[in-house]
Design a protein that fits this description.
globular; alpha+beta; six-stranded mixed sheet
Length: 486
């Protein structure tokens, strides 16, 4: 064999070996990740011939499969959704070309391939019964969800989000993102071209209807963050509701910080109590409290409520949640603004609902979750979520003081009277956050009710509402709380 042929043979052998190694790597080690890749259509197409389990809210199907095959033809299941855009941000959609939301995170249970269903699947094979996916039951309360969605829709074109939590368990009672879309528009298996076109149009919509604002959009929380600052003042400085702080009508923080209170003054320019500063939402006193607390302590207090999670410790409900941020600030001017929920502080609506829920629950923040249970086709329980403590954000005494101060917010002279419910004591906190542009402020309200025995904690944000948290967000929060307490 001459030299060129020998070299060509060796080169060809090396190529074959590389190909064999690559095939072994893909099929032996990367099969699961490739199978789960969102662009791998085969994973979804091969499931169209099998009945997929329903997703339920309060015992009613909000996602289910219907066999649309003609009689005598192989089964072909179309996924269908009820209530249009109401539940889409959480439930998601199951399409021939992918999935998102609960449809994606609980896919193996819904399609019946999960190892936890192996005994049932074996039994079905023995008995000749067609396999069927499990039922996923969500924690959402239809009345709370509708109150939040209808409230946002009534604002006429304003984007926003609303989250409600059971403070004692962490169960998510409502998770609204507006605008949303009807999942039925993107899942047709008979009009695939139209479904794909609709999906692409939604992706390009400047209002981002496919973005789950409740879980994955961060906003400056504005004055709702003063609850965190007040907690830090009590936990780290030993402050009490009647402790006072300088509350000038103007405060120099690199640029002048005015008060957002009626008349532009908190207490006539005199030192103001912590309780009164919460009630009327005094900016300058809270900026001074943040400076006094210090950047590290303020950041640590925020982390105790759920901000700044360590890498790998981000919330999973089981939908992924974008981390909220409250970094350590060394600069006095930036720290002062951080104390009123501006500068580098960013929070998701879920995070601010957790702040309200933590105060409501005596300082204990429960880990939020949206999947209550998974049941087999015979209704036997496959999984059941148990309430779990996420963190101890404050002492019980600090939480009690915060509760009392927040209750004054919805009472006479408070900034959040639109969040009050006749005959029910409500704790709340308003927020109006600057956005650094000409689009208008973000408007917030967080709160819980009944204040003496909380059943629901809420957070509502209106993007670029241009008004105040008390005027725009508080009424929606009130309606969500009313859905539970009345």
């Amino acid at each position: 064999m001459n030299t060129p042929i020998r070299r060509l043979s060796i080169f060809s052998l090396i190529l074959i070996m590389i190909l064999m190694v690559n095939i072994t790597w893909i099929q032996g080690f990367r099969a699961d990740s490739i199978r789960a890749h969102p662009l791998n259509n085969r994973t979804y197409n091969e499931r169209l011939s099998e009945p997929r389990g329903p997703i339920q809210v309060a015992g009613e199907n909000v996602a289910f499969s219907t066999n649309i095959a003609e009689e005598g033809k192989p089964a072909r299941y179309q996924r269908e959704y009820t209530d249009g855009p109401l539940y889409t941000p959480i439930v998601g959609s199951f399409r021939m070309y992918g999935a998102d939301g609960i449809e994606r995170t609980e896919n193996s249970l819904l399609d019946g391939s999960d190892d936890r269903l192996a005994v049932r699947n074996f039994r079905d094979i023995i008995t000749g019964r067609d396999p069927e996916g499990a039922q996923v039951q969500l924690t959402l309360d239809p009345a709370v969800q509708k109150a939040g969605y209808n409230g946002l829709e009534a604002l006429g074109g304003k984007n926003g989000a609303a989250v409600a939590i059971d403070p004692g368990t962490g169960a998510i009672l409502g998770a609204v993102s507006y605008p949303s879309f009807d999942a039925n528009q993107v899942v047709s298996i008979t009009e695939q071209t139209s479904a794909i076109a609709n999906f692409e149009a939604l992706e390009q919509d400047p209002d981002k209807p496919m973005l789950n604002r409740a879980l994955n959009e961060r906003y400056p929380p504005g004055s709702t963050f003063k609850v965190v600052t007040a907690a830090a003042a009590m936990e780290y400085l030993g402050a009490e509701p009647d402790s006072t702080m300088e509350a000038p009508d103007r405060l120099d923080l690199g640029r002048e910080l005015p008060n957002a209170t009626p008349g532009g003054t908190c207490n006539g320019g005199e030192p103001d109590t912590l309780a009164h500063s919460i009630q009327i939402s005094c900016n300058t006193s809270f900026a001074n409290w943040a400076i006094e607390v210090g950047g590290q302590n303020l950041s640590d207090q925020a982390a105790a409520f759920g901000f700044n999670p360590d890498e790998g410790e981000e919330l999973d409900i089981p939908l992924s949640v974008t981390p909220s941020l409250a970094p350590v600030e060394e600069d006095r001017n930036i720290l002062g603004r951080a104390g009123i929920g501006q500068s580098n502080v960013e929070a998701t609506p879920l995070q601010m609902a957790m702040v309200a829920a933590g105060v409501a629950n005596g300082g204990e923040v429960m880990r939020p979750y949206v999947v209550d249970s998974v049941r087999d086709s015979d209704l036997s329980v496959v999984t059941q979520t148990s309430p779990e403590t996420y963190s101890e954000a404050t002492s019980a005494s600090t939480a009690e003081d915060l509760k009392e101060m927040m209750t004054a917010v919805t009472g006479p002279g408070g900034s959040g009277t639109n969040g009050a419910i006749p005959g029910v004591e409500v704790a709340g906190k308003t927020g109006t956050a600057e956005t650094g542009n000409d689009l208008g402020t973000h408007n917030w309200f967080i709160g819980f009710a009944p204040a003496d025995d909380p059943e629901i904690a809420v957070a509502v944000v209106i993007e670029h509402g241009g008004g105040s948290g008390g005027s725009l967000a508080a009424p929606i929060a009130r309606q969500m709380m009313e859905a539970v307490v009345l």
